[in-house]
Amino acid sequence: MKIAGKHNWNNLEAIVAIILNLLLFLVKLWAGIVSNSVGIIADAWHTLSDSFSSVIVLISVKFARKPPDKEHPYGHGRAEIVAAVIIGTLLAVIGFNFLLESVKRFNEQQAADFGLIAIIIIIISLIIKELMAQFAFWCARKSGSDLIKADGWHHRSDALSSLMVLAGIFLSRYFWWIDSVMGLLISIFLFHAAYSILKTSVTKLLGEPADKNFTRQIIEVINKTTDLDIHPHHFHCHNYGEHKEISLHIVLDPDLKLSEAHKIANDIEENLRNELKIEATIHIEPQKQ
């Protein structure tokens, strides 16, 4: 029931994001074309990229729910991490395209012609995108999904880019080149968002050490399982989405019977499974004499 609820939150966030982003894209693109603004057009495509990422969220969430099979014995949870990598790459590509367009407009000294409609649309977009970001973060807290959190930062980056466009509109009467600079700043912001998402996702794909809080929880379970001082160490966490595995070393008396050592390790694995919902593999080392 808990797992189903998690995916329901993810699906809800993605569906709401797709609908609102498509509507915002259309009105912002229209405003950008009317005002001949590369900044607003870049902002519109940034919004559309949010729709692409939300579609990826829907597909990956559905795929991630598939149970383990012969080809994927650890489940399909990493589909969400792969999807986050796709979102980050998409942001980087869009950012690069608008970087080129902004430089081109600056070299050709092209200025934008902003009107009241463009101002109103950008203000509405800014408010809606920030509300969408807050909603995504709320859903991420409910579901514990890094992918939904990444989608929330995507919305936040769009809100901030709209804020930059709005500031540029009011400065355009003084500086002809402000529209090109806005496009450049938005592209840099896109690069930063892409880097943050890719760094987190790639780290998880490559493998990462267990964080201190998680390690502390594991040690607490171990201490409740046995009174022996077994010095748990060498923790390695393997994240497969909802399914997590951890390997660790423990130290036991070399004179201990094999059956007794096996029982200690087995009891620890069972308690970690029951209390922390993780599968553990324990390596036993002989205590130095």
SSE layout and pairing:
Elements: H1 2-35, H2 38-64, H3 79-107, H4 116-143, H5 146-171, H6 178-206, H7 212-225, E1 233-240, E2 243-252, H8 258-276, E3 278-286
Parallel strand pairs: 2-3
Antiparallel strand pairs: 1-2
Class by alpha and beta content: mainly alpha
Separation of termini?
A: 50 Å
Helical content class: over 70%
Label the overall shape: elongated
Average pLDDT reading = 78
Whole-number radius of gyration?
25 Å
CATH superfamily of the largest domain: Cation efflux protein transmembrane domain
CATH architecture of the largest domain: Up-down Bundle
Task: Could you tell me the CATH topology label of the largest domain.
Answer: Alpha-lytic protease prodomain-like
With strands numbered from the N-terminus, the spatial order across the biggest sheet is: 1-2-3
What is the helix/strand order?
HHHHHHHEEHE
The biggest beta sheet reads: 3 strands, mixed
Query: How much of the residues is beta strand, in percent?
Result: 5-15%
Descriptive report:
The chain has 289 residues and is mostly helical. The chain folds into 2 domains: 2-206, Cation efflux protein transmembrane domain (Alpha-lytic protease prodomain-like, Up-down Bundle), CATH 1.20.1510.10; 212-286, 2-Layer Sandwich (Alpha-Beta Plaits), CATH 3.30.70.1350. Helix content is 71%, strand content 9%. It is built from 8 helices and 3 strands. The chain has helices spanning 2-35, 38-64, 79-107, 116-143, 146-171, 178-206, 212-225, 258-276, and strands at residues 233-240, 243-252, 278-286. The protein has a 3-stranded mixed beta sheet, covered by helices on one side. Helix 1 (2-35) runs antiparallel to helix 2 and helix 3 packs antiparallel against helix 6. The chain is elongated and about 85 Å long. The model has no long low-confidence stretch (mean pLDDT 78).
